[in-house]
Amino acid sequence: MRFPATLIDNAPADGILPFRPASPLDKANIAAPDGAMPLHARYPALSDLKSRARRRLPRFVWDYLDAGTGAEHARRANAQAFQAVNLMPSILHGEFAPDTSVTLLGNTFPLPFGIGPVGMSGVIWPDAELHLARAAAAAGLPYTLSTVASQTPDTIGPLAGNHAWFQLYPPRDPLIRTDMLARARAAGFKTLVLTVDVPVASRRERQARSGLTQPPKLTPRLMAQVALRPAWALAALGPAGLTHLIDMLHQDLLANLGQLGTAKLTDARTRWTPPG
Asked: What whole-number distance in Å separates Cα of residue 137 and Cα of residue 39?
């Protein structure tokens, strides 16, 4: 059996493709604790990671992360549009060194993507924003912190390095808006990602079916879903035990969902003027 040259250090010349330097994705795939199966072997495709996450997370947390709005027609159409893009192979040109880098906003990145904003990531997994920011910085990719993140800009900015981006749902209160932007800039965020697609509260039908209501309430139904996912529950318990888990669910997820369900957080239509 022959393995790609990027996966071995001293490949024999006979019968092996010419060696090329490992890309950031290669390094991520190879890295694994001693004795552990490499990540790319455990999860060959993103669909495998998705299936694993769905089995590990409580249903209401998974549906918060994965669901679109309404009947999710736009979500499916977006996926179909990407699947319709095909790459034409070009062969018999000799050796080549693939270049996946891209220049955007005056910065060069090793890959043409970054980590997008996901509100309340810490509910999906404890300290998720910290892990993602560190991983993005190590790979030289942008990390975007959500307005409704579980961590503050002051905490995440230094971890995200030179490519810290901040996503803003413009609040109606100008004092809150100015303070948020000032804190993000002081924490090292240099790029602002402005979200303008929420003029009214969205209708998330799948979330409602899983038990997330408006106004949000911590119900026995949600706690039963937590009990069915012991790995997630134990990780979320933290040092403070059950009190921490309940506070996390109530304050981070339910309280922020309550904000997102009102008009207080979204004012990017006609009345918001960029500062300066």
From this structure: 19
Select the more confidently predicted residue: 172 or 53. 53
Rounded (5°) CA angle 6-116-196: 150
What pTM was computed for the model? 0.75
Cα–Cα–Cα angle for 40, 114, 108, nearest 5°?
Answer: 110
Count the Cβ atoms, other than its own, within 10 Å of residue 76: 11
User: Per-residue b/e over 173-189, b at no fewer than 16 CB within 10 Å?
Assistant: eeeebeebbeebeebbb
Distance CA 244, CA 241 (A): 6
Instruction: Identify which of 104, 110, 128, 103 has the alpha carbon closest to the alpha carbon of residue 118.
Output: 128
Q: Using an 8 Å Cβ cutoff, are 268 and 160 in contact?
A: no
The answer to which of 33-47, 135-149, 241-255 has the lowest mean pLDDT is 241-255
Instruction: Name the percent of the chain in helix, strand, coil, to the closest 5.
Output: 45, 5, 50
Distance CA(7)–CA(156), nearest Å, equals 33
